[in-house]
What does this fold into?
Amino acid sequence: MIYWQLFYVFFKIGLFGFGGGYAMLSLIQHEVVERYSWLSATEFTDIVAISQMTPGPIGINSATYVGFSATNGVLGSLVATFAVVLPSFLLVLSLCYFFSKFRNNDNVKNTMQGLRLVVIGVIASAALLLMNKENFVDAIGWIIFAVAFFLCKFCKIHPILIIVLAGVVGGIIYG
It folds into this structure.
């Protein structure tokens, strides 16, 4: 029974998770923490952190870890991972045909513009979701964020260098 629930939940997340993995996080959190109680909020936060550190898309990594945690086995990981990827595969396959035929249509262009705005909102929702009591950000954290944003946006410093520098500064301050 849990395997069908995992498949259904992650197929639905894969189907409606526009904007990629970070946009999926709020959907995943709602389903696995609030609705089915497969994980606690703290466990979910840990899974997000692990998913960010491991190679691959965060949505797929999260599905893999949630599937394993919910079933205590590899089969749960496989079911959840397959389910979250399947809708994207099917949608991309059908959209390739559709988009190649109608790419210059004004309605298609307007729809794509509207989807961009929705994706921004969903990603912002994921960022707010991760701001819980386990991940409290103090004033120093906001300053590090602001400096990192400024360096990336206006000074065009490579994001990986900014991540390393932010980690060093955070390690010194909070270490």
Observations:
- The two ends are 45 Å apart (CA to CA).
- The chain has eight helices and no strands.
- Residues 137-175 form one domain.
- The CA atoms of residues 57 and 139 lie 30 Å apart.
